[in-house]
Amino acid sequence: MAPEIHLGRDYEGVKVDLFATGIILFTTMTQRPPFRTANPNDPHYSLIAAGQCASFWEAHATAEGGEDIFSAEFKDLFEKLMSLNPSKRPSIVDILAHPWMQGAEATEAEI
Predict the structure, then answer these.
(1) What is the pTM of this model?
(2) What's the total number of domains in the chain?
(3) Which structural domain, as residue segments, surrounds residue 17?
(4) pLDDT for 53-105, tens place per residue?
(5) Per-residue b/e over 11-24, b at no fewer than 16 CB within 10 Å?
(6) Strand, coil or helix: 71
(7) CA separation for the pair 76, 83 (Å, rounded)
(8) Is residue 102 part of a domain?
(9) Considering the domain boundaries, does residue 9 fall inside one?
């Protein structure tokens, strides 16, 4: 659930769905969720909510045996989708135009 739901605030379905899309994207890339809950008190989500994204990515590099498997473009898109402030999340149009979405398609050998 998006942080606005955890915090008991009014929410827009589209913004909540965009947040969920980011979770799915991260989980697809790593086979694990990015954090336990999208509550600003969660140890991992709190890093994103506080703008300490470098620490968030360091924690996930540790889970990958110390390797940073995420491109700068992926990190940028994910961080935007995870914004604590729903009005700062990108629109569908913004997402489709994002450099990560414009990258090369994976070949069958890479999948």
Answers:
(1) 0.87
(2) 1
(3) 3-97
(4) 999 999 888 777 777 889 999 999 999 999 999 999 999 999 999 999 987 76
(5) beeebbebbeebbe
(6) coil
(7) 11
(8) no
(9) yes
